[in-house]
From TrEMBL, chain A:
Species name: Desulforamulus ferrireducens
GO MF terms, alphabetically ordered: iron-sulfur cluster binding; metal ion binding
Keyword Iron-sulfur belongs to the record: yes
The entry's keywords: Iron, Iron-sulfur, Metal-binding
Protein name: 4Fe-4S ferredoxin
TrEMBL record, chain B:
Name under which the protein is recorded: Heterodisulfide reductase subunit F
Keywords: 2Fe-2S, Electron transport, FAD, Flavoprotein, Iron, Iron-sulfur, Metal-binding, Transport
Domain FAD-binding FR-type: 5-107
Cofactor(s) it depends on: [2Fe-2S] cluster
Organism: Desulforamulus ferrireducens
Residues that, per the record, bind [2Fe-2S] cluster: C243, C248, C251, C259
Length: 334, 277
């Protein structure tokens, strides 16, 4: 199917009457995800959002439930968000990160109702990248500028128009309701060409990397890797696959709520025991944890690498630590 | 979908000062609803997140045994926000409990076996659960000889003094208590746990050990000397936790989450993981 770019705003405005529509918008000098009412606000002409797409399903700060305590007992109010939502124009790396996070938020024993309820009620419109940034290396990470995994509908930018594909049943159903026109053979061919020929940095080879890292916990390699690191955790907060969180209660008198906030393994307090013992006392152990979690532990647990090559950690690190370089160094070790 | 983040309301029925330094209290909690009491099925070694409304929650090993119906016990050291708030609670206060969480000691697998249980400091809590469970008349016949080595810095810091006395009086448990230094009036052993373990040289099918990291570090080689193979040494870890359900990413050791895959592991399992606990 095909749609003219100038029709998009109208369709989004209409969809926003029925759904919560979330799209990238320009706000405070950044491109970031926000709920929109007017389709004109959507900004699809962007490299990638500053904050990752995970924030839509797993917000940076979220009230899980609140409570009032009285002599009669405790009254609790759970805040599961069930609103039907369409996310419009998410880049393939961010979409893929949600597929990875699904593994975390549902395990054989427990279900994170907050994340999974949102997930079940959200339809994702992915948007391919015609011009990957210099920091993008999704092609190396079982992802890619036109990877469709996780998208319900997928858009390919053909200049004046978007080529539109329904991927999941959910996506196809919505498209059927919109009554769009069919793409010409020429347009189909143009989309196919873009999709196969556009590549980001694909020079990092992850084959066998997990196994190699598995034997490297005590390797001197870790001694110097972290030396420049400030421990600011920008890399982990802005990573679409990092999912660590903290749980805290906020309360005043007899009313309180429980919130969860993003947290990060790059902070010393993250693992500090009450006794004062800290299993990861320094930068070395923390950088090792970050890399090992993404490229070894996550692979062992979920059979997938916890990095989609979005490049945010590279772009935003104040001291220019580059995870690609760390991986290349691991590769180069005997 | 059951929401694993929502605590069950429980009533604090007893706030007991356990040790002479007053830093450890034992809390007895009662389920408010009969249904919750029946649904909360746990085994020795599991833990729960205990919540003080308005302050937050923290993980504590369940000190009671499933054979003690309708209640849960926790012995808590005063170290920070939640534990201090707990210590100050009046009896009758409602608290929240999330659990049971984590795995447990493999008591099914241990049936018919003789056991040595070694505990140091207040990490003895989940071992109390195990011992109480085994000593219950309904279960005692399922297990062989039971040796317990339990040490504290001084007699005042020993937990569950009444129970220790009761256990000591029974013929079906060999209880050895030890303190670090000679104290007037103390008739038990004196010496650190690794030393005492070496002297006792326990011979059992399995050893269960729980205590502060240093104690574990020095006792393990002794157990190995006594002939316990790594698959027959069972330990419990205590990494810092928040979610308790394998999602917040805080408590991992390698690819394992202590909250969900543990806290109980055999030495054999831990030997394969990075030494980061
Ligand atoms: C499976 C398991 C079982 C456990 N069983 C027991 C048990 O049976 N009994 C028991 O007493 N304990 C037990 N613990 C330990 C217990 O969970 C901790 O002592 C508890 O979390 C303390 O909670 P708190 O809110 O009182 O402390 P917190 O306020 O969280 O503080 C704990 C410590 O962390 C440090 N800390 C925290 N926040 C900060 C900060 N912002 N700045 C600087 N330092 C900080 C401090 O050193 C402080 O003393 C267990 C732990 C686990 C994982
Ligand atoms: S962004 Fe850079 S400096 Fe900050 S914690 Fe990450 S690696 Fe260290
Ligand atoms: S590790 Fe870096 S490049 Fe990989 S997904 Fe996270 S932020 Fe993106
Ligand atoms: S406590 Fe959250 S993963 Fe273990």
């Amino acid at each position: 199917m095909i749609i003219n770019k100038n029709e998009i705003a109208g369709i989004l405005t209409k969809l926003a009457e029925e759904y919560r529509v979330i799209a990238p918008v320009k706000k405070d000098g950044l491109v970031q995800y926000a709920a929109i009412k007017n389709g004109e606000e959507a900004c699809l002409d962007y490299a990638n959002t500053k904050k990752p797409g995970k924030e839509i399903l797993f917000p940076q700060s979220e009230e899980l439930f609140n409570y009032t305590v009285s002599a009669e007992g405790v009254r609790m109010q759970d805040n599961v968000d069930k609103e039907a939502t369409i996310v419009f124009g998410m880049r393939p790396c961010d979409v893929k990160s949600l597929v990875l996070l699904d593994n975390v938020f549902k395990n054989d024993q427990y279900t994170d109702v907050y994340y999974l309820t949102r997930r079940a009620n959200t339809l994702i419109v992915g948007l391919g990248c015609n011009e990957p940034a210099s920091t993008c290396f999704c092609t190396s990470m079982a992802c890619g500028p036109f990877a469709k995994e996780g998208s319900d509908i997928f858009l390919t930018d053909l200049g004046e128009t978007y080529f539109i594909e329904g991927i999941s049943d959910k996506g196809k159903e919505l498209l059927a309701k919109l009554g769009l026109s069919a793409a010409s053979e020429e347009q189909k061919a143009a989309a196919a060409k873009l999709q196969t020929e556009t590549k980001a940095d694909g020079s990092i080879n992850i084959e066998g990397l997990a196994e190699k890292l598995g034997g490297m916990f005590e390797h001197p390699f870790w001694d110097s890797l972290h030396e420049k690191c400030l421990g600011c955790a920008a890399c982990t907060y802005l990573c679409p696959t990092c999912h660590c969180f903290d749980i805290a209660d906020e309360a005043k008198d007899c009313e309180g709520c429980r919130v969860r906030n993003w947290d990060a393994c790059m902070f010393p307090l993250f693992t500090l025991h009450g006794s004062g013992h800290n299993p990861r006392p320094g930068g070395k152990a923390r950088w090792r944890q970050r890399l090992m979690h993404k490229f070894n532990y996550f692979v062992e647990r979920y059979n997938a690498t916890a990095c989609v090559g979005c490049g945010r950690c590279i772009k935003n690190c104040p001291v220019n630590l580059d995870i690609r370089q760390a991986l290349a160094e691991v590769r180069a070790l005997d | 979908m059951r929401n694993p983040y929502l605590p069950l309301p429980m009533k604090l029925v007893k706030n007991f000062t356990e040790t002479s330094d007053k830093l450890i209290h034992t809390f007895t909690l009662e389920f408010l609803s009969q249904e919750d009491a029946e649904n909360f099925k746990y085994a020795p070694g599991q833990f729960a997140e205990v919540m003080v409304y308005g302050k937050g929650e923290a993980p504590f090993g369940i000190a009671s045994s499933p054979t003690e119906k309708g209640i849960l016990k926790f012995s808590v050291a005063k170290v920070g926000v939640v534990s201090t708030a707990l210590h100050m609670l009046e009896e009758g206060t409602i608290v929240g409990v999330r659990g049971p969480l984590g795995n447990s000691y493999p008591l099914e697998q241990l049936k018919g076996k003789s056991l040595t249980i070694i505990g140091g400091g207040f990490a003895f809590t989940t071992l109390r659960s195990t011992i109480q469970y085994i000593l219950d008349p309904a279960n005692r016949g399922d297990y062989g000889d039971l040796t317990v080595i339990y040490g504290a810095r001084n007699p005042g810091l020993l937990l569950y003094k009444d129970e220790l006395a009761a256990w000591d009086a029974r013929p079906d448990i060999n209880l050895i208590t030890t303190i670090d230094r000679e104290v007037e009036g103390w008739t038990g052993r004196v010496g650190f746990i690794p030393t005492v373990t070496k002297e006792v040289a326990p011979k059992s099918d399995y050893a269960i050990i729980c205590g502060p990291p240093v104690m574990i570090k020095f006792t393990l080689p002794v157990l190995v000397e006594c002939g316990f193979t790594p698959d027959r040494i069972i330990m419990s870890l205590e990494n810092r936790m928040k979610c308790g359900i394998g999602m917040c990413g805080r408590c991992n050791v390698g690819s394992k989450y202590v909250c969900k895959d543990g806290p109980v592991f055999t030495k054999e399992q831990l030997d394969k993981l990075p030494n980061e606990y």
